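User: Teach me something about this protein's shape.
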Amino acid sequence: MMLSYALQSVRDRKGEFLGAFVALMCAAALITACGALLETGLRGAIATERYAASPLVVSADQNVHKTTVKHKGNGKTKTKTKHKAKPMAERAWLPAPTVRRVSAVEGVRAAVPELTFPARPVGPDGRFLPAADGRTYYGHSWASAALTPFTLTRGDAPKAATDLVVDREFAARADLAPGDRLTVQSTGSPRTYRITGIAAPEPAADRSGDLRHQTSLFFSTAEAERLAVHPGQVTAIGVLPENGTDIAQLKKDVTQALAGSLDGTPAGARTALVSSGDDRGPVEFLDAAGARIKLVSMGGAIGGTSLLVGASAGLVGSLVGLPLGAWLHGRFVELGAVPATLERTASVFPMFAAIGATLLGAWAAARISGRRIARIRPAEAMAEAAVDAMGLVLAFTAIAVVNTLAMSVSERIREFAMLRLAGATRRQVLRMLRTEALTVLLIGAFLGTGIALAVLTAFSVGMTGNAAPAVQPLVYATVVCAAGLLALVATALPGRAALKARPVEVAMATQ
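Assistant: First, the predicted structure itself:
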């Protein structure tokens, strides 16, 4: 009986149900796409490149740990312990004596110290040479070339402080050969080097040629230590095992040898971590490791907003959501929000989640709206419908405004640091943010008012025959003032949080 009524209702109201179907299908597609982003953030692999030939990599702990102990109880003591860890934006370095401790472990053929620092080539016109396909320029010591491994295809290894070896991809792109001169801007003033050789990585299981996400410049050991500006420290240590050594057991032995505080650090300080397999990728690409949290947050924020819209078009929408998820991941990579080193993960779980969520959302929406309709008085229906619709519009608009402004401010931490270093005070930076927000508000209010008047005029002519729509000045002023308040809050709070970091540390953080 109820099924026949439902089918009859669909036949009599094809337009309404078609619109609902399209909306639900889009909701399912969006949930599937966001689920794919969440899965990528949680399970996406970060493949290593520089450490491909090193099955184990020793690095400093990149997290700041905090342990809180609370005692409760009257007479009977109850202890509650909480451990929290938050990742650091800048790289944590290892004390150089750690290399000796790793080398002494049985089964280790060689412990190779790694130095990684920014090194950007400068063209004859004084401008930085552009990187290819989103690659980043990094400088290293030639002593760590075996970690990839890089081998010379032309020329000789760098020996003097002014010698330089460049990788094959960059040499071909910039038309460089041994004997040429190249100016490099690193952590100090620009310096001109003589290219002594061209190096290329040996093919790996997941790579047939050059590195995909970085361009390597190799310096002599002494010059690399000078440019790294961390005397007595190393970025990481690549562990090359002896033939026939069990990697899992060797990892346990190295971890045990490094247990406790590191050489040169106080007790309780950051300890060394031993990584293998895909865990080596986050050690190499700090931005990709931090992007996991960002990707989970973005996917959860977008997907959570869409959960209430879902329903019966889940299957179609979930199928559409798979390519949509790939497109969203690609856009995030192009915009720089997510590095290309965080590879996308796809499975059937987001599809099932989207179908279940849309069905649950449709059932809940129908049940809630049905109870509401059954209780409301007919005379009040039209007025309350208009109020509810306006409330939804304002709510979603507020979410969009706050989210956009907050993300915009959060992405400008380095810019704020440079302004602080140039002499600007915290109050001046916050005043600048308020001015920007109000300027955007005024421009948006002007354009939005014009568009709204055009739409309302056409609507008024069609409904009443009068070209002058009824606009309440108090309502208009309230909406504009509320938007201004939202804009100020959405810029002030992230701005204050961004200004808490020390400007020098933010400006020097390059990885």
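Now, about its shape. The CA atoms of residues 358 and 386 lie 25 Å apart. Residues 264-269, 302-312, 373-387 have pLDDT under 50 and may be disordered. If you'd like, I can walk through any region in more detail.
User: That's plenty for now, thanks!
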